[in-house]
Amino acid sequence: LAEAFAEYLHKQARHDWGPFSLLFLLRMVWLALWIRWGDRVIERPLLAATLSALVGVMAYEKLSAVALIPGHLLMVFGSVRRPGKRVLAASAIGLAIGMAPVLIVNAISILRTGETAVQRFMASPNAALPLARLAELGQFLDLSVDPAFRRSILGQGAAAWAPPLERALVLLALAFALWAARRSGDSGARRLLLACAATAAALLLLPAATSAHHWTLLLPLLPLALVLAWRRLPAHTRGHKLGAALLGVWVVFRLLAVGDLGRALAAGATSPQWSPALTTAARLAVSEADRTFVLVGTWGLATQIYCLSNGRPGFVREMWWEYPGPKGLKALLPR
């Protein structure tokens, strides 16, 4: 519930549309299978391969999702028991199958442009050391009611009280999950917390600076770790009651935040980057598709125009993705 009612989830779905929704679905299936089978995953090669394949496909949706791989390995193979060779091999094969689309896209990119999509991702590398980038961790604390991201989409920030309350709740949830996992001895909760730490470290080691939408990878892990540890505490104890109260306050707060977001959307709030005028312009271009060519110079427009044109080949080109400079502009135009 804490994940499903995160305001950021709904804003990001508006921001990245289908791709983010697909990533959320894959992440929930991945976690559901892991919760269902737990330590028995290492006894079932096919299940281990399926979980690894899901992580690989997530990396295709967003390349930064490769940061989930260390956490995934800790979750699946972090139990006391040693996995067999068949399970390890199946997991490696599953990961390779899941990442096949990424490999294919990079191969096509090499044929077309002479460089990989990964190299494009590293076009503006962040030279700062991981320790110097620890400030990026703050983006995780703001995920639910990130005022900057909300302003970029809706043209208005969040209520002044919402961001500090969300940060306090996330920090309290982390502290309680650590205490409850140690007190209850729940191995699943411990592995999830280790997975959180490993994923955060991997994000900080990425060659490019991270933004808030990268840190959504951590969104479901912390609430789930809290619940797994809390449910193993003896009922009617102070710890159990404290955990129930914390979960209740967290969910209610996020419901209020989502309600506030819903009111803004119902009122038609939007920033210039998300103005309905862009859709009107795209529909006008599509209505004259036989004699129109769209050259997009910024991120976030080409996919929508392409969809409105029903996938018309050659109708849209993204100048920002492969811009050769003013002298090479003619190369992007249809012949």
Brief rundown of the structure:
The protein is mainly alpha-helical. It has helices spanning 7-16, 18-37, 45-61, 68-77, 85-98, 100-113, 117-121, 138-141, 147-154, 162-184, 187-205, 221-231, 238-266, 276-287, 302-308, and strands at 294-296, 316-318. It has 15 helices and 2 strands.
How does this structure look, described?
- By secondary structure, the chain is mostly helical.
- The protein has 15 helices and 2 strands.
- It has helices at 7-16, 18-37, 45-61, 68-77, 85-98, 100-113, 117-121, 138-141, 147-154, 162-184, 187-205, 221-231, 238-266, 276-287, 302-308; strands at residues 294-296, 316-318.
- The chain has a two-stranded parallel sheet with strand order 1-2.
- Helix 15 links the parallel strand 1 (294-296) and strand 2.
- Helix 3 (45-61) runs parallel beside helix 5 and helix 12 (221-231) packs antiparallel against helix 13 (238-266).
- The termini are far apart.
- The relative contact order is 0.11.
